[in-house]
Specification:
The structure holds 2 protein chains of 2 kinds.
Chain A (H helix, E strand, L loop, with lengths): L7 H33 L1 E3 L5 E3 L3 H8 L1 H34 L3 H15 L2 H12 L5 H8 L13 H26 L3 H9 L4 H12 L1 H16 L3 H6 L13 H10 L4 H32 L1
Antiparallel strand pairs in A: 1-2
Helix pairs in contact in A: 1-13, 2-13, 3-4, 3-7, 3-10, 4-7, 8-9, 10-13, 12-13
Chain B lengths: L9 H15 L16 E6 L6 H10 L3 E6 L5 H13 L6 E5 L3 H6 L20 H7 E2 L2 E2 L2 E13 H6 L8 H14 L13 H10 L5 E2 L7 E4 L4 H15 L11 H9 L4 E5 L2 H8 L7 E5 L12 E9 L6 H10 L5 H11 L6 H5 L1 H4 L12 H9 L10 H18 L3 H18 L3 E3 L1
Parallel strand pairs in B: 1-2, 1-3, 8-12
Antiparallel strand pairs in B: 3-11, 4-5, 6-9, 6-10, 6-11, 7-8
Helix pairs in contact in B: 1-3, 2-13, 8-9, 8-17, 17-18
Classes of the chains: A mainly alpha, B alpha/beta.
Chain lengths: 296, 442
């Protein structure tokens, strides 16, 4: 037996143990992915049947101005939303970590609660809050002299969506970062206190660098999540279909291509194209952060 | 059935869940639903409208050899998403499905509908009003059996009209004048709301204005005529553009809370409606029951009588049915010549019958609606139904309606030209049709 090789019985047990996961992974991720890929290489029209189309669908996606606009929108959205989400989450995590009281526990719960609300319901609820004639926000804005803003209108819809997903996701990221903070050794902070560092300085200079990898991970997840934006525009669309069009974001575009227009093949190609964008963006982010840590 | 087009609200939630169900568990929703052997053959039926159970019960009681399993699979687009997914998957579709006339060509084109002409559907031809039969048939091929229609009318707040001394308009010119008048006498109210988010509504208005957006029938494939940007469409949309731009009508999207609130709060003095609207209104604007009245739809000129249908639906049999013969009988006989079934449907599902015999029944005509202060509204809707002419839908209605709604909504938001929006829709729909393999004629 070679050194390092696994005994046969152990290997068999190992295979058996991973098999439930492997089966589910294959059935619900790999196979659908392969099917979608196969579909994206074909093209069928309503009049004729399905034919092999090679890269045609992808070339069309590249030239599709609506897809480009949607992709541009989610990239911009990611650039705006990611710093807001991570910044707020980090701030909240540091504050709750530094203060130990019943209030901070309550605060942590309250921050996390929106994440427990299903996205669909959250967006629906915000739809009512944004409503021009029934929603309290319009009335409040009017009362402080801001006129009657149309929250789902052309000028504000982007900010409205950012607001909804911030509400939903800050708590989640906060918990991730907060858990990482629990692993920061207490004696380190104690030593810093003895050296005369205040709470703010400890948070910025010690705790934040210590949880750097958790921040990177939360950011990568956020980048991926923001680029796949779907639920918020999908649910807010009925309130203003002229602004939130079917091609507002790539995921919504792919959805409507498949389920409203029966263009399943093109929809599959759009999904892969979006997947490529997500991959490039998150990889670029990782590359940048890694390079920085090397040069430091 | 009532074709409430709450299309884009509630349906989407279920659409997402359904998408998941369709992807994850096609086996869970057993297809066909029929079992062999003794006992009645089971036929699965999808339709919307909550009050459908008594009609199904009546059928099961009178047909010992067939047992309908009824599922309310959602209204309109909601149901179509499920149906398309099931048809694409090859399993999971019902035997009999309710489809709007506008959706019928889309499903028919995918070759998933059984030609009911082979099961004696043509014998029933004379039972139905002519235009409805034209909607479901192509020569001797019959792709569905008509159920209800959506003849249009103007419903208005009788009390508010009286209080402000307003006259019920008979032409669109008078209606526009009235809209401006309402704005003067009640600055916070509107004569009506224009729901540009409802493509079928916009289409119905254009239809009444003389527009015909498509020339299409399955037998003429792959040819299709597309004339969305006709002068008639532009006339109708320019009319509404001026009212919207002048602030004389509101633009809250239809079937949203803001819209319902406008109906129940007196913000809207009137509403352009179809025969199924009262059902929706009675539930969302309960507080105003008894204050509304129905008048004929305004006309494009004195003394004219041109009508259109906003919605309306039929029963089709899918090719996934293992018992097409029994399924065809469900489609043909669920209402068919059965007056009792029609009565039940009228009472509980608020449907406007396409059966000639039922339309003549005093029971139907003399029915007094408490919501309209006891008015016999079917007298007006029936007259409107008589005036409905032909209209050919495209086999990609979902695309057309969503483009119409998107472009006009954009025009409203940007305050840009609606006629330019119509030209854009024409271009986009033409491109879509060409890409889908059609030969497009102007």
């Amino acid at each position: 037996m070679r050194i390092g090789a696994v005994p046969r019985a152990e290997a068999r047990a190992g295979l058996l143990l991973v098999s439930p996961f492997a089966v589910l992974l294959a059935a619900f991720l790999l196979l659908p992915l392969a099917y979608a890929l196969w579909m994206s290489l074909h093209r069928s029209t309503l009049v004729t049947g399905s034919v092999f189309a090679g890269a045609d669908n992808y070339l069309q996606a590249l030239r599709d101005p609506e897809f480009a606009r949607g992709a541009g929108r989610v990239v911009l959205y990611g650039l705006v939303q990611t710093p807001i989400l991570i910044g707020l989450a980090l701030f909240a995590a540091l504050v709750t970590d530094a203060t130990v009281s019943r209030v901070s526990k309550m605060f942590r719960m309250a921050m996390f609660a929106p994440y427990a609300v299903p996205g669909v319901i959250g967006a629906l609820m915000w739809g009512f809050l944004y409503s021009p004639s029934l929603g309290p926000l319009t009335g409040a804005a009017e009362a402080i002299g801001l006129g009657r803003p149309d929250f789902t209108g052309k000028d504000l819809v982007f900010a409205s969506i950012v607001n909804v997903s911030t509400w939903q996701w800050v708590g989640y990221n906060m918990i991730v970062l907060y858990s990482a903070l629990q692993a920061v050794p207490g004696d380190l902070c104690e030593a810093a206190t003895i050296d005369g560092a205040g709470a703010v300085r400890i948070a910025v200079r010690i705790k934040t660098p210590m949880i750097r990898s958790a921040i990177v991970m939360a950011t990568v997840f956020t980048v991926i999540g923001t680029l796949q934006l779907f639920v918020e525009p999908f649910m807010l669309q009925p309130f203003n279909p002229g602004t939130i069009t079917d091609s507002y974001v790539p995921n919504l575009y792919a959805y409507s291509q498949a389920f409203s227009y029966q263009r399943y093949e093109y929809s599959a190609a759009l999904s892969f194209a979006l997947g490529a964008i997500v991959f490039v963006c998150s990889y670029a982010f990782l590359l940048v952060t890694r390079r920085r840590s090397v040069t430091r | 059935m009532d074709v409430r087009r709450m299309r884009r609200m509630r349906p989407k939630v279920t659409a997402v869940m359904l998408f998941l169900v369709a992807v994850l568990g096609p086996a869970a929703c057993a297809g066909g639903g029929a079992k062999a052997g003794d006992g009645p053959v089971e036929v699965e039926l999808w339709s919307w409208s909550a009050g459908f159970q008594p009609v199904v019960d009546h059928f099961n009681a009178t047909h010992p050899d067939i047992k309908i399993r009824w599922t309310n699979a959602g209204t309109g687009e909601d149901e179509y998403t499920k149906l398309q997914t099931a048809l694409k998957a090859g399993r999971g579709a019902p035997d009999v499905v309710m489809l709007e006339y506008a959706e019928l060509p889309t499903i028919q084109l995918t070759k998933h509908l059984v030609d009911l002409g082979k099961y004696g559907a043509n014998d029933l031809k004379d039972e139905y009003v002519g235009w409805a039969w034209d909607q479901v048939s192509d020569g001797d091929s019959v792709y569905a059996v008509p159920v209800d229609a959506g003849p249009m009318a103007l419903i208005y707040r009788k009390d508010l009209f009286q209080a402000h001394g307003l006259t019920v308009p008979t032409t669109w010119a008078q209606y526009a004048e009235l809209a401006r008048q309402v704005k003067k006498v009640a600055p916070n109210s509107y004569l009506t709301d224009f729901g540009s988010n409802d493509g079928l509504f916009v289409t119905a208005l254009a239809w009444q204005g003389g527009a015909r957006h498509f020339t299409y029938s399955p037998s003429k494939l792959p040819n299709i005529g597309i004339t969305i940007d006709s002068p008639e469409t532009k006339k109708v949309l320019t009319y509404w553009e001026e009212l919207v731009r002048g602030g004389a009508v509101d633009t809250a999207p239809y079937w949203t809370t803001d819209f319902y609130n406008g109906l129940s709060s007196g913000k809207y003095f009137s509403l352009i409606a179809a025969s199924w609207t009262p059902d929706t209104m009675a539930s969302v604007a309960k507080a105003t029951a008894g204050k509304w009245a129905v008048a004929p739809l305004p006309q494009w000129g004195d003394g004219k009588d041109v009508q259109a249908s906003w919605g309306g639906s039929a029963f089709a049999v899918t090719d996934q049915s293992k018992h097409p013969e029994q399924a065809a009988r469900v489609a043909l006989e669920l209402f068919g010549k059965d007056l009792k079934a029609w009565r039940t449907g009228i009472d509980t599902a608020y449907l406007f019958p396409t059966s000639k015999a039922v339309q003549k029944e005093t029971y139907f005509i003399d029915h007094q609606w408490p919501f309209f202060g006891g008015q016999k509204v079917n007298e007006i809707f029936r007259k409107a139904s008589d005036g409905i002419g032909d209209y050919e839908w495209s086999p990609f209605s979902d695309y057309v309606f969503s483009q119409l709604s998107e472009q006009i909504n954009k025009a409203v938001a940007d305050r840009s030209s609606w006629t330019a929006a119509v030209t854009t829709v024409q271009g986009k729909v033409t491109a879509h049709a060409t890409e889908q393999g059609f030969v497009v004629n102007k």
